[in-house]
TrEMBL record:
It holds the Pfam family zf_topless. Residues 34-92 form the CTLH domain. It comes from Kingdonia uniflora. The lineage of its organism: Eukaryota, Viridiplantae, Streptophyta, Embryophyta, Tracheophyta. Keywords: Repeat, WD repeat. GO terms for biological process: regulation of DNA-templated transcription. This is CTLH domain-containing protein. InterPro entries: CTLH_C (IPR006595), LisH (IPR006594), Topless_fam (IPR027728), Topless_Znf (IPR048419), TPL_SMU1_LisH-like (IPR054532), TPR1-like_2nd (IPR054080). Residues 318-331 have a biased composition (Basic and acidic residues). Residues 289-331 are annotated as: Disordered.
Amino acid sequence: MSSLSRELVFLILQFLDEEKFRETVHKLEQESGFFFNMKYFEEEVHNGNWDEVEKYLSGFTKVDDNRYSMKIFFEIRKQKYLEALDKHDRSKAVEILVKDLKVFSSFNEELFKEITQLLTLDNFRENEQLSKYGDTKSARTIMLVELKKLIEANPLFRDKLQFPILKNSRLRTLINQSLNWQHQLCKSPKPNPDIKTLFVDHSCGQGQANGSLAPSPSNNPLLGSLPKIAGFPPLGAHGPFQPASAPVPTPLAGWMSNPSNVSHSSISGGGIGLSVPSSTESSVIRWGSSTGVTMGDEPLVHVPNDEDTDEGEAFGSTDERDSGGGVNRKE
């Protein structure tokens, strides 16, 4: 997709958000893969909408794309499994174990066996490594902190966590400028023309919705920037698209979740597991971060793919990325 087409998607996203088409906004974010809405992701995690959480993530990464992605999906599915156990919903827990967690057994068979054995306990907190598991709300909050760090460190999310800075109603403004250009082709331009449709070009003729079609600039790729006609007024107060006021450009309110300046050198490539970190524990992310069992520091079994290297460095060697801007977002 060309750069301009990509920018058009952002303009449509802004328009949909301003018009409050919430579900459509997030569907387009997911399908385009251009902007990962961290605020929306946080809301879905807090609400435990796991199917939507994974569906939204799927627009940006898959389980086996790289180690960061694998950790993200593992943490989500592990939390989902523990919540089913906490509700004593054994059938649901077994379903999650078979459909969602089985895929990780090829990377750590012992861990998968230990997770399976939790089914035999009346309370999974009897497992020493899960003894600090609190309630569902606190567990989701702890997990989310680590998911955000993993997402920010994941190269597949690079440049997708910040929405471009746009003036309000940018798409409407561009349409308004187009209508102004079309109206100035009329023999006697009016200060307040009656625009009835956007489906055809505007003109001042009779007999058609907007009169006879005016020549469109899009039909002539050689047409350069048009000279401004001095004194030509913008579409008046009765036109459907008014020129937007020119506020100081600010981030799109409610859309952007500014990535924190996380030192991604602390992101560990350690093995998947189930341990509960204390509030004073270091920010090193382990596979069992929020709710569950770490199996020591054994390395994650390598999944070969093109994302595993970054300028010749082994994947997970993030010690020098902060200084080089490898995961920093453009402001």
